[in-house]
Design goal:
Number of helices: 9
Helix content: 40-55%
Mean pLDDT: 89
Shape: globular
CATH class of the largest domain: Alpha Beta
Number of domains: 2
Radius of gyration: 20 Å
Distance between the termini: 50 Å
Number of strands: 5
Structural class: alpha/beta
CATH topology of the largest domain: Rossmann fold
CATH architecture of the largest domain: 3-Layer(aba) Sandwich
Low-confidence stretches: 1-26
């Protein structure tokens, strides 16, 4: 009798763990509710020579100094620990920076599609279309973009278009999504000489006073977790947000992942 009870208990625990494990993997956070970094995040720090003696208050300033490359586009970043990328990829996968992340719910009031270069904007629109084809309902699509000047060296575009926002509208109007769901465009302007960021576009959208609701943010890996942290730090209650995005086909240099990690942690701490 005791053996039967034990076996049943173990089976229940096994089922519980099977259900919980994917949620843990998909939890877009670097740390637990107490603020302690998850094991994979700690292993990444150790792999890249972050001193284990740093206190919680010392860690973020250290990463801002040594990992974050503020003011640089991703293709401008200097290399960091590139010889350790192969060892870092499994840790980045466990953290949630590698594989695609799909919508967990069936209905969202808003789909916030984040602006980027042409290739990534197209991927994000395609990924949102994929979610809708799987049965996800979207009340309104919001294209979050801004007055970034287009760069012919990294993206192709019709010559009459000048900014990222103009290109985003062009791509959307020529996409299967167009005409099926109400949409709005946020066209943020530069601040202090810097191009608009996700935070800038979100604040401009909130300034239009949208009705509170559930948001599905569409980005691309490895930036899904970081973007979710940014959005959560800005959206007021009772808005909620879940970020999703397609997997990265070709891995970036490790410096981009480390910059992303540092920024992600910064916004988690802001929350």
């Amino acid at each position: 009798m005791r053996l039967l009870y034990y076996t049943r208990s173990m089976n229940i625990l096994k089922v519980f763990w099977i259900l919980l494990f994917p949620l843990y993997l998909n939890a877009l956070s670097l740390s637990d509710e107490q603020g302690d970094l998850y094991p994979a995040a700690k292993k990444l720090l150790h792999l890249c020579d972050v001193p284990l003696s740093l206190s919680e208050n010392e860690l973020l300033p250290y990463l801002q100094k040594h990992w974050m490359q503020a003011g640089k586009e991703r293709w401008e970043m200097k290399a960091l620990y590139e010889d350790r990328k192969e060892a870092a990829i499994p840790l980045l996968r466990e953290i949630g920076c590698i594989d695609e992340l799909e919508a967990k719910n069936n209905h969202y009031d808003y789909a916030l599609v984040l602006g980027a270069t042409r290739f990534r904007m197209e991927k994000r629109l395609d990924f949102l279309q994929k979610q809708i084809e799987k049965g996800v309902e979207i009340g309104q699509i919001v294209l979050l973009s801004g007055d970034r000047k287009l760069d012919p060296e990294i993206e192709a575009f019709p010559k009459e278009l000048k900014t990222e926002a103009e290109l985003f509208i062009y791509l959307y109007e020529n996409h299967p999504l167009y005409g099926k769901t109400p949409f709005t465009v946020v066209d943020s302007k530069p601040e202090f000489g810097r191009r608009p960021t996700t935070a800038t576009t979100l604040r401009d959208w909130i300034a239009t006073k949208p009705s509170p609701g559930r948001c599905l943010a569409v980005s691309c890996q490895p930036f899904v977790g970081y973007q979710e942290a940014v959005i959560k730090s800005i959206l007021p209650h009772p808005f909620s947000v879940e970020a999703i995005g397609p997997a990265l086909e070709n891995p970036y240099p490790l410096a981009i992942y480390l910059d992303n990690f540092a920024k992600w942690l910064l916004y988690e701490k802001k929350r």
